[in-house]
Each structure stands twice: as structure tokens, then as C-alpha cells.
Amino acid sequence: MTDQTLPPYLMTSDPGSFARKTIIERKPQIIRQVIADNDYPPEVNTKLDNLRDEIASQKIQPLYESAADAAFWNAEVTNYAGKTWLQIPWYFAETYFYRKVLEAVGYFQPGEKQGCDPFGKQKHEQIDNDIRKLAIEWEQLSALEPETRFEALLHSCLWGNRADLSNFTVTEKGRGGLTAHEERHLILIDHTETIQKLLSDGVSRVDFICDNVGSDLLFDLGLTDFLLDKGWTKEVHLNLKNQPFFVSDAMPADVLHTINALQKSPDAAMQNWGQRLEKNLSAGRLILETDQFWTTCLMFRQMPEHLRRRLTHSKVVLIKGDVNYRRLLDDRAWPHTTLMEEVCSYFPAPFVTLRTLKGEIMVGLEFGQAEELQAKDPTWMINGKRGVIQLAIPQ
User: Fold this and answer.
1) Is CB count within 10 Å lower at the N or C end of the chain?
2) Confidence at residue 334, expressed as pLDDT on a 0 to 100 scale
């Protein structure tokens, strides 16, 4: 397809859209929370307030700091010269917002705040709280037969990512976790059995393209532990963000904090789980990867060649969350019956999307299915109630 025949990008200018709402409501709220959570000097808080004003009513501004990625971002900004934040593609607006937050707080600049995660307080609270909650159910999960346990973990990897700290419209009660079996009818595309057969036969390597900390990451680590312990794979690679992104996205430091917190849990089963993860890290069976690409405005079809080569070694790539789903599909408004394999023929390995719907984009549905859903629930694409577990094998 040429650019002329592709469907349009999701835009912040779309009246009444979820995309527009995220810029008008969610981003200012995130800035207020960053100020509340961090003991920044007045000049940093002023920069954050200025960013909030820019988003509300001003034209989009370039980065002014000296940093390794500044030239990249400023080249992208030139594509939207003279535009406001409510006149640009949604994914670019969201990613550039997080990069502007890092500029405002001096994340890349020398000083005591260099490298300090502005979302760290929220993330650590989420991790510690979710470990305490999960400990209640972990023994029950561990007692299940392997096939049933795999299904419970895979489905929890889906529903766990409802707890996205950047999305204040999804309520706490929406988090399914280990009780998600009751919500099977809410999975619009469900390839669980095919995925289980593929993995249980044994594969050399599995990759996760990770999403959020907390229950989301915990279930990723739970599935990782299962796959390694049962010999379904020889190694697992977690592809993580290299810098703070979308409030709750997981970085290597967040994984290490989670594993450490598991080992310090008063629950013996959680301690043992954390110890197994630590041993697999040390043995090189659990590998933490980062790449600058994951925190850019680029779509997955624009993946750099070195990253494509890395992922070709994986037999299955588990792609987590709504934002990664959008990047797979170029954040464009494809017809709902479009085949995932057709749009994503570029992807370098077989992949599974584990995604709760929190954005106005969806493919792979049957004819008439979207219309039926719309009639039952006008907010079905954004309210986080439905999900997909979808295997795609690009040709």
C-alpha cells in the first residue's frame, strides 16, 4: 500500500475522540501528579507548568536541551511546525509529551536529579501493592496442572495490563488477574489453545515486548518463570524501556525492584519465585534488553535493522498492551475486518498480541462484529473491558 491508500492516523484533532481527551484531560493530570510526587525545585515545577500551558493552548515547541536524542525529536517536530497539540497524530503527541516531561525535570542533565524517574514513586507503590495482593492467590495458582496454569497466566498477562497508571479512566475494579477466567467471553480474539500447543512443544527463545509495572509485569514474570521452569523455552528476553515512558512502562530497574521485592515478601511462595527469577537472571536464561527505539514516536514497521535482527532469533514475541498494539498497526484507523497478518507482514517473527482495548483501533474481527459491539456498548474500544489474545504469523 502507498501512503495515499493507507487509512488515516488517529489524530488529537478528531472531535469527541479518546485521543483528544487524553491530551486535554490526562496529560495535565499527569503533570500535576509528577509535581506532587517529587521534591523538585521551583524552577523545575515552573517548567512543568509551562509544558501544561503549551499543551493547553500553544503551538508545539522543540526540545531546547542538549541531549543525545534531541536532534531526532526536533527533526520530527518540524513535521508539525505551527501546529498545536490538538492538531497532530495521537501517538506522536503522547510520546513527545513524555520526552518533554524528561526535559522539564532535567532527566538527562548533570545534577542530583539526573536519571531519576519522575514516575518512580507511583511505580514503586504499584509494584509493592500488587505483590501483596498477588500473594493471596499465588499458592492457588501454583497448585494448578501445567496446562491450566499456563492458561491462567496467559490470561492474567492480558488482563493485568488494565492497571495502566497513565490511563485514569480505567477503574481499579477492572483489573482481572487470576479471576479472569470468568471473563473469557470478553476476549474478542482468543488463540490460547494454539499458543499453548506452540510453546509446550518447546522453543529456543521467547521475547516479551513489555508494557507496565505492577500486576502487568508480575504476570509477565510469572509466565516467564513457568516457561523456563517447565522447559517450554530455553531463554526469555524482556524488551524494556530505556527511559521513563507512559508513566508506568517497565524499565530494567523496575524489573530488578520487582524481583527484589518478591524475595523480601513475607510469603514463602513469593520469595521462592523471586529467587528463581534471580537465578535465571544470573544464569543468562532471563535477559533484560533495552533499545532507544522503544521510547520513540516511530511505529514498529520503522524498527531499526539491528532490532529486527535481534527479534528474528525469537520463536514467539509476546507483545503487551494497548500502545504496542497501536504501534503494530501504525496507529491508523484500519477497517475492523482487516487481517493482522496483512498489516504486519513486516514483523520479523511470529507474535502474540495481549491487549485490553483502550484506544480507538481494532483489526481481525468478523464482519458485523464491530457493529454488534457498538450497539451493545458505544465505548467498547476504549473502556478496557475487552481484550485480545491473538497469534499472528507474518508471511
Assistant:
1) C
2) 97
Q: Please state the domain count of the chain.
A: 2
pLDDT digits (tens, 9 = 90+) for 33-80: 999 999 999 999 999 999 999 999 999 999 999 999 999 999 999 999
pLDDT, one tens digit per residue, over 124-166 is 999 999 999 999 888 888 888 999 999 999 999 998 855 344 4
The closest alpha carbon to 383, from 94, 168, 169, 190, belongs to 169
Q: What angle do CA 33, 39, 44 make, to 5 degrees?
A: 80
Cβ partners under 8 Å of residue 116, min gap 6: 38, 105, 107
- Please tell me whether the overall predicted TM-score, pTM, comes out greater than 0.90 for this model: yes
Sign of torsion over alpha carbons 345, 245, 187, 202: positive
Instruction: Please tell me the distance from the alpha carbon of residue 50 to that of residue 40, in angstroms, as a whole number.
Output: 15
- Which residue range forms the structural domain that includes residue 83? 18-105
User: Residue 42: which CATH number?
Assistant: 1.20.930.60
Burial 117-136 (b: 16+ CB within 10 A, else e): bbbbebbbebbeebbeebbe
Q: Does 99 lie in the same domain as 135?
A: no
Rounded distance between C-alpha atoms, residue 111 and residue 109, angstroms: 6
